[in-house]
Amino acid sequence: YVVVPDGASAPTASQVKLGQNGAGAQVTANFRGAITHSAANVPSIVTITGITILTDYDVYVVAEDIIPNLQASPVKIDVTAAPADIVPPVFTAGYPKADQITSVSFRAVSSLNEVGKTYFVVVPNNASAPTSAQVKAGTNSSDVAVQAAFKGTITNTTAFADFTANVIGTTDNVDYDVYFVAEDAFNNLQLAPVKVDLKTVTSAEDDITRYLSVYPNPAQDELTVRLTRNPLIQKGAVRLMNVMGQGVQQSNLTTREEVSEHTFDVSRLPAGVYILELSEGKRKYFHKVVVQ
Q1: Count of helices and strands (H, E) across the chain
Q2: Which of 122, 150, 174, 227 has the fewest Cβ atoms within 10 Å of its own Cβ atom?
Q3: Where are the beta strands (DSSP E) in 23-142?
Q4: CA distance 214 to 278
């Protein structure tokens, strides 16, 4: 037998016996061989290694008896190499989920039973459900691309572990639908996405807002951030980001004094929506601002 690429010129019976392709060239060692039949009408098996997943091959087989009488022409067998794993990944119980929900952000969390990737999109509440392929492509059910801040990919490098992505730019006190779909390393995509219901909190529910002032909002030239002494944040980093989560300016605030403040120069920033992030350790607070 010989294994050749799909659609290659057919070898003759003699070429197959010699381990050659249709051009008379020797086939790679693991793609040629002989099967010895010690008894009639009893199957004999050989394992061929080194094939490429999801690739088509032509396998030419020719038989010879002990006389030896060689068959006049080989028999072609069409083969497609299937992946070793054809089963999509499964979310760990309780996943996917959304947590660390604030008025303007949340965290998308995924855990899978194998290494892979998790795709997600955020769409308005009760919008038509996208398909798995649409979620992977970052579109809604109408194949319209979801805004960049509302879609993403989480890389699950370990099974049964939390992997996350921060989503910034939601509106306070609004319901959203978050659709997740997972795919493993063999490109096995789940048949249907999983929907997670999300409701952002109101600005009043973000405790830090009692101590944080951001003005003017909307801003044109300058944006001032003022933090009064409080039990929630003792010393924090304040960062101004675009809706993609990319920092554009940063400073530090401390509440050792009664009031700590910093003024950002926003005069050269493109007009649009920005997110102010105030963080201390693992705790993060977000505030939406507009630059005109």
Answers
A1: 2, 17
A2: 174
A3: 56-61, 75-80, 97-99, 105-110, 116-124
A4: 11
Give just the sign of the alpha carbon dihedral 180, 181, 184, 187: negative
Q: Return the exposure string of 229-242: e unless at least 16 CB atoms fall within 10 Å of the residue's CB, then b.
A: eeebbeebebbbbb
For 180, residues 6+ apart whose C-beta sits below 8 A from its C-beta are 91, 96, 108, 110, 118, 119, 120, 135, 193, 194, 196
Q: What is the pLDDT of residues 58-71, one digit of tens each?
A: 999 999 999 999 99
**pTM for the whole structure:** 0.58
Looking at the chain, which runs of residues are DSSP E strands?
Answer: 2-5, 56-61, 75-80, 97-99, 105-110, 116-124, 151-156, 163-168, 175-184, 194-199, 212-215, 222-228, 235-242, 247-254, 259-265, 272-280, 283-291
Six token digits for residue 277: 């992030």
Strand pairing of 163-168 and 105-110? antiparallel
Per-residue pLDDT of 160-213, as tens digits, reads 999 999 898 898 889 999 999 999 988 999 999 999 999 987 765 555 666 778
Q: What is the pLDDT of residue 131?
A: 98
- Collapsing DSSP to helix, strand or coil, 39 comes out as coil
Question: How far apart (Å, rounded) are the C-alpha atoms in residues 78 and 229?
Answer: 75
Q: Is there a contact between 193 and 138 (Cβ–Cβ < 8 Å)?
A: no
Inter-residue contact 33 to 44 (CB < 8 Å): no
Identify the bridge partners of residue 137 per DSSP, sorted by sequence position: none
Question: 276 forms bridges with which residues in the sheet?
Answer: 240, 287
For residues 148 and 139, what is the distance between their CA atoms, to the nearest angstrom?
Answer: 10
